[in-house]
Amino acid sequence: MPENTLVINCGSSSLKFAVYDTANNTCLLKGVAEPLGSHAPTLKWTKEGDTQKIELPKGADLEYALHSISNKLLADTPIQSIGHRVVHGAEKFKASAVIDDEMIAQVEACNHLAPLHNPANLTGIRIAKKVFGDIPHVGVFDTAFHQSIPKEAYLYPLPYEFYEELGVRRYGFHGTSHRYIYLQAAERLGKPVEETAILSAHLGNGSSATAAEGGKSMDTTMGLTPLEGLVMGTRCGDIDPSIHGFLCREKGFTIEEVESILNKKSGLLGISGLSNDMRELTAAAEQGNDRAQLALDILVFRLAKSLAALRTSLSHCDAIVFTGGIGEHNPWLREAVLKRLSFLGTEVDLIANESHGVDTNGRISTESSRVAAYVIPTDEELMIAKETSDTLRNA
What is the predicted pLDDT for the residue at 2? Predict the structure, then answer.
C-alpha cells in the first residue's frame, strides 16, 4: 500500500513541496510556487520526469498555492500525511513531533530565535491544516538532530544567565540534511550506524559542517543563528564579535545595519565584490580575477580548518562527506579541502572526484585511504517524509 507524504517548506514568499511514497522512498512530485504575493507568481512542478509551469493570479498567496496543488496536482494522488519543515525547535524539540495546538504554541515560543523562518513555517502549517483538513501533520525541525551535542560544545562562554533566561546557545541547522547524509554514508561504508563516525559538509549559499558519531550529532559549525561557522555565499561565518561594535563606532552603523551586512553582503560576495555564485567566481578566477580567487581560497581554508576542528569531537573518523549544491558539483573545492586534510588519512582519487563519484557509489578517495571521502546528494524532502511517517507510526 502506498504511504504518500506531502512535504511542505514555506518561506516568506515561496512554497517548496514534494510528495513521496515512503513505502518505497519514491518521489512522485516535486515543485515550487514563487514569488507568492507578487505581481507574477508561478507554480512549477515535475511529475514522472515531466516539468510544467503555470502562472498564478497576481498577488496569489500561500493559501491559493496550496489549494492549486491540492486541486490540480494531487487530484489523483491521495495523501496520507503531511510533513512540515520547521527551522527552529530550540530545546523544546529533540525529535519530530505531531502537530497540534500545543505544539504550535511551543514553536511560536521559539520565534524570537528564528524570526525570518519560524513565522513563515507556522503560516504554512496553519493554512495546510485548513486546506487539507484531517490529514495528520508532523513538524520536522532543522535543529532537532543537533540536540545530542554535549554541553561543552553548545554553550557559549557568556554569563550563564543568558542561556538560562534567553536560551543563548549553539543550536545548529541543516540537521535534516546532515542526518540523511549520515545514514547514507553508513550504508555505503557497510557499517551499522551505531559504529560510524563521520564528518559532513553541507555546502550551498548557506553552509555548515557537522561531526556525528553513533547516529548522533556531536558538534556543528552553525550556532544560535545560521550566521556562525563557515564562509557562505553572503554570510561571513566566524568573525571577532568586537567587529560589530567597531563598525557601529567607526561607520556610524546601527546594530541592525551591521547584522544585515554580515548576513547579506559578506562571505564570498563581500570578499570578491563580484558574486556569491561559485560558478561565477570560479570562472572569474580562471580569468585572473584576484579577489575571486581570494574568496575561493578563504572558503577552502576555513572549511578545512572547521572540519579538522570537528574531528576532535569524534573517537575515530570513517569518512568525510560533501553534499549540497557546491559540495556535490565542485570537484576543485573538494580536492583542495581534502589535500589540506590529508593528515587525517584521505587521498583523493582524482578521476572519481572529477566525475563526482558517479561510478564509485560516491566515493572520491583512493581504496588505500584510511579515511574515506564521498560525494552524496542530499534529499532533505525525503528525510522529512520518512521522519513524518516514522513519527506517526510511533505516536
Answer: 64
pLDDT at position 316: 98
Alpha carbon distance 382, 5 (integer Å): 9
CA torsion sign for 253, 255, 256, 257 is positive
Cα–Cα distance, 192 to 354 (Å, whole number): 29
Cα 182 to Cα 15, 192, 241: the distances in Å are: 27, 11, 32
Q: Which three cell numbers stand for residue 360?
A: 564509485
C-alpha cell at 309: 576542528
Give me 209's grid cell: 559542517
Cβ atoms 222, 174 nearer than 8 A: yes
Predicted local confidence at residue 395, as pLDDT: 81
pTM above threshold 0.90:
yes
Residues with Cβ within 8 Å of residue 99, at least 6 apart in sequence? 84, 125, 129, 137, 138, 139
Q: Which backbone phi and psi does 16 adopt, to 5 degrees?
A: -95, 140
Q: Are 268 and 233 in contact (CB under 8 A)?
A: yes
Report the alpha-carbon distance of residue 197 to residue 218 in Å, rounded: 10
- Residue 109 CA: distances (Å) to CA of 9, 93, 137, 155, 395: 20, 12, 19, 20, 23
User: Tens digits of per-residue pLDDT, 89-108?
Assistant: 999 999 999 999 999 999 99
C-alpha grid cell, residue 297: 581560497
Task: Taking residues 277-285, report their average pLDDT.
Answer: 97
State the catalytic residue, choosing from 100, 142, 219, 277: 142
CA contacts within 13 A on the Cβ side of 163: 13
Q: What is the mean pLDDT of residues 317-341?
A: 98
Closest residue by Cα to residue 365 from 189, 178, 191, 186: 189
The pLDDT tens digits of the residues spanning 225-266 come to 999 999 999 999 999 999 999 999 999 999 999 999 999 999
Confidence of residue 1 (pLDDT cuts 50, 70, 90): low
Cell numbers that stand for 224 in this block: 544560535
Backbone angles phi, psi at 169, to 5 degrees: -165, 175
- 142 catalytically annotated: yes
Phi, psi of 202 (to 5 degrees): -95, 110
90 φ/ψ angles, rounded to the nearest 5 degrees: 50, -140
- Number of Cβ within 10 Å of residue 210's Cβ equals 31
Sort residue 90 into left (φ over 0), alpha (ψ -120 to 50) or beta.
Answer: left
